[in-house]
Amino acid sequence: MNRGSSRRERDAGFTLMEMLVVLVVIALIAAVAIPQVMRMLESAKTRAARIQLHTVSQAVNFYQLDNDAFPTTAEGLAVLVDAPADSETWAGPYLRRAEQMKDPWGRPLIYRSPAGDKPFSLKTLGADGRAGGTGEDRDVEVGE
User: Fold this and answer.
1) Rounded distance, CA 79 to CA 59, Å?
2) pTM value surpassing 0.85
3) 18, 42, 54, 103: which is deepest, by most CB within 10 A?
4) What's CA 2's distance to the chain center, in Å?
5) Is-contact 52 101, C-beta < 8 A?
6) In Å, what is the CA distance from 78 to each residue of 8, 71, 108, 112?
């Protein structure tokens, strides 16, 4: 009886070689999958930034309809959430939350009005927070 039980004990576990093979397979899968998942998450933030900029841009346009002028650069986007003291026609808030004025990376959106030949521009500097860049670091901008 002792002989049978020791054979079962030997056959019951995994060998070191089997464990190493499993770990190598898991590492290979992770090496291929993780960069792909990270790229998808990063591009999702850029798409979210573009959608957010369009939403805030629409709020700026609604502000202009009510007040007959776009917010100035000095006023900034804060007037979309809080009424200016001297405004009688403000019908906001034009954005639900002040957090909507930040990009997906947590930095404030950049607003200018006027912006060259456009009444305003609205942009984010991307993941790196610096002008220019490629991929996730590139600037995303909308303007009327």
Assistant:
1) 10
2) no
3) 103
4) 64
5) no
6) 73, 9, 11, 13
